[in-house]
Amino acid sequence: MDIVLIIALLALFLLPSFFMMRKQRKQQEELRSFQQALNPGDRVITAGGIHLVLTDIGETTVTGEIAAGVEVTMEKIAILRPADQVSPAQNAPIHPEHANDDAAESTGSDQNQDDAADAQGGGGFPQHPENDDRNN
């Protein structure tokens, strides 16, 4: 009776681990086959979240274009998945703090707040003696 209990407990703990390892191994194999099947012109996403279009595929490295005329070379293992029909936003602002510039121009409220902060000496910098022009 004790042997049956021991076998049941081992099965209870070992079977889930076995199935998880099997699933991970399958995912790794799928990723490896995807990376081996890469072709120039493929749109992919890297481990760092960078979207690029592949221009050259080497044995262990790939070269891809991030933007017009901007190419990077990285390890092939950094490519995680295809970028399914993801295209870069047209005329997207480069800096997030300028994302509302068009809206601010139409309402003027954001610009008025910035002007008020500048007039008070804030200008986006904390009030500190090193930032005070009167100390110079």
Describe this structure in words.
With 136 residues, this protein is an alpha+beta fold. Helices cover 39% and strands 21% of the residues. It is built from three helices and five strands, in the order αβββββαα. The chain has helices spanning 2-36, 101-107, 109-119, and strands at residues 43-46, 51-57, 61-67, 70-75, 79-82. It has a five-stranded antiparallel beta sheet, covered by helices on one side. Strand 1 and strand 2 (51-57) form a beta hairpin. The longest helix has 35 residues, at 2-36. It is elongated. The termini are far apart. The model has no long low-confidence stretch (mean pLDDT 76).
Question: What's the total number of strands?
Answer: 5
Secondary structure tally, helices: 3
What structural class do the secondary elements suggest? alpha+beta
Terminal residue distance: 89 Å
Q: What order do the SSEs take from the amino end to the carboxyl end, as H and E?
A: HEEEEEHH
Radius of gyration from the alpha-carbon trace, in angstroms = 27 Å
Spatial ordering of strands, largest sheet: 4-3-2-1-5
Shape: elongated
Oligomerization status of the protein chains: single chain
Helix share bin: 25-40%
Biggest sheet overview = 5 strands, antiparallel
Content of β-strand: 15-25%
Mean pLDDT: 76
Low-confidence stretches: none
Give the gist of this structure:
With 136 residues, the protein is of the alpha+beta class.
